[in-house]
Structures are given as C-alpha cells and as structure tokens.
Write a structure and sequence with these properties.
Helix content: 55-70%
Largest sheet: 3 strands, antiparallel
Shape: globular
Oligomer: single chain
Order of helices and strands: HHEEHHEHHEEHHHHHHHHH
C-alpha cells in the first residue's frame, strides 16, 4: 500500500503511465513475481527510490507543451512555488490576475481546484495544487535553471515581506527557496529561524532536523548563529537522553565560543558540560569542570 500511494501521488491514475512504471520497477528488481500469488507482484526492494520512467516524463512534457504559452508560464511558475500554492502568491510573481488560467488548467486535469481543508494553506486564502507530482516536476523542469533560481529568489523575497510570516510561519519554505536560488548562507539562517518556531509548535524532532540543516549551510564564519544552533541541539539531545551525542555537541559548542573569542559563551558551554556530568552521576568531574567556568 505504501508503494502504491507513492506511485499514485507522483503519477496519478493514467493506465499507460502506471503500466510503464510497473514494468520499470520490475526491470530494476524493485518488484518481482509473487511466489505465493501467481500473476501478482511483490515489493522486494523497499529501500530503492521510486523513479519516474522517461516515457512518462515525455508524455507529460508533450501534454504541457500543447498548452497556450500563457498557461505554460503560469504552470511553470506555480511549480516553483510548490506542490500546493496560494493564488495570491502566483499572481504577485506574474504581475497579473491568474484565476481564469488556473481554472483552465483545473479543467484540463492538471491542477486540483481550491480546497479549504489543505493544512499547508491558511483559512481564507485561495489555493490550488498540482494533481500529481509528475505534472509539477515536468512543469518545473521546463524552466531554464537560471530562471528557476530567479523565481525561487522572488518567492523567498515575497514571503519575507508577507504579513503572514511575522510569526515565522513560512521560514522553512523561505529557506528552501533561498537554497534553490543558490543562497546557502541565507537559507541556513532561515532554517535556524524555522527551528525556533518548530521547537514550540511541532516538537523537538522537527526542530532538530531544521537545526541540522542550518548547520550544514551556515559558513564557519557565522559562529554566533552556529553557536545558537548547537546550543539548541545540545538541549534537545539532553532531553532525549543521547549522552554521547550531547557530549560531542558540547565540545563543538565550546569550539564555536572559542572562535568567537567570547569568555561568556565559553563559560556557558562549560556549564552545560558540568550539568551533563551531574546528570550522569559524575559529581567530582562536574565540580572540576564547573570550577574552570568561573
């Protein structure tokens, strides 16, 4: 069922495309004839990535290429925004009303009409979604790389200016667009901001994932931000009881403080180390460690 959900999500229900996809999965050894159920297939390589056959991509590309130029542009710019997109965002990027074109694309079965219950879109905002991941991928790939980067940058700047982002609602999305635009440092800072929001709204696992992404993108020179990210990761690791990883994070935290030349931050990091020793019952070591922080 999980594999079927992935296939339908990416490709929809086109019988020709589904048949091509199943044949490709059999050729790659991901699916095989079921020994228990003749005529059926069984999923044998569950760790392999689902790839869309080139024939399916070609069929969809030809379908989109037959659209009027204005409709192709709307579809491609929408693909940069995301699988689900707000009508107002798309209109801003294109500089004109897009409602009629979106309705036309929905009539052609390329987009799904507005739905009030989409969790990714706030109530009261009209949105559309691509019917399948395949449609979005092909529409996205129609844009030259430099144009995609330009649009990603424009989407990020628009979301940064939007009043709705005052609470950091879109920070992870903004980070994604900045990364696709080639701004790794800007993306890292936004992932860090998104982690602050996630810790309160969605819990430690999501915050930790975003903090890890931020650290991977922030340059070594951004030591203040890297110190903040590592401090938050250390707190989460402590809550999870991951003592070995927590200890490593504290050592990296101290390195960031040393790079900043901040005695205050180094003392705070050392205090965290002493607390870790207390938590694992090493009181004597904790006392010696704490003495170095004073």
């Amino acid at each position: 069922a999980a594999l079927l959900d992935q296939i339908v999500d990416k490709l929809g229900g086109n019988p020709l495309v589904l048949r091509e996809t199943l044949a490709a999965l059999v050729e790659r050894g991901i699916l095989a004839a079921s020994p228990a159920y003749p005529g059926k297939l069984t999923w044998v390589r569950r760790d392999a990535a689902l790839q869309i056959p080139s024939s399916a991509l070609a069929l969809m590309a030809a379908r989109i290429d037959r659209l009027p130029a204005a409709a192709r542009e709307v579809l491609s710019i929408a693909a940069v925004i995301g699988r689900t997109f707000r009508t107002a965002d798309l209109a801003m990027l294109l500089g004109h009303n897009v409602v009629d074109t979106l309705e036309e694309l929905a009539e052609r079965g390329l987009l799904d009409r507005p739905a009030a219950d989409r969790p990714s879109v706030p109530s009261g905002e009209t949105s559309y979604a691509f019917m399948t991941g395949l449609i979005r991928q092909v529409a996205y790939d129609l844009l030259p790389p430099e144009e995609r980067a330009r649009v990603h940058r424009a989407v990020a700047e628009h979301l940064l200016r939007a009043a709705g982002n005052a609470t950091g609602r879109d920070d992870a999305v903004i980070a994604h667009h900045l990364l696709q635009a080639g701004d790794k440092e800007g993306a890292g800072r936004r992932f860090l901001s998104a982690a602050r929001t996630a810790a309160n709204a969605r819990g430690n696992a999501e915050a930790f994932r975003l903090l890890t992404r931020a650290l991977a993108l922030l340059p070594r020179e951004a030591r203040a931000e890297r110190y903040e990210a590592r401090a938050e990761r250390e707190t989460i690791l402590g809550a999870w009881g991951e003592r070995a990883k927590q200890l490593r994070e504290i050592h990296l935290l101290r390195r960031e403080a040393e790079g900043l030349g901040s005695h205050a931050l180094l003392a705070r990091a050392t205090t965290r180390l002493a607390q870790l020793y207390i938590d694992v019952g090493k009181m004597a070591v904790a006392e010696r460690t704490l003495a170095t922080a004073l």
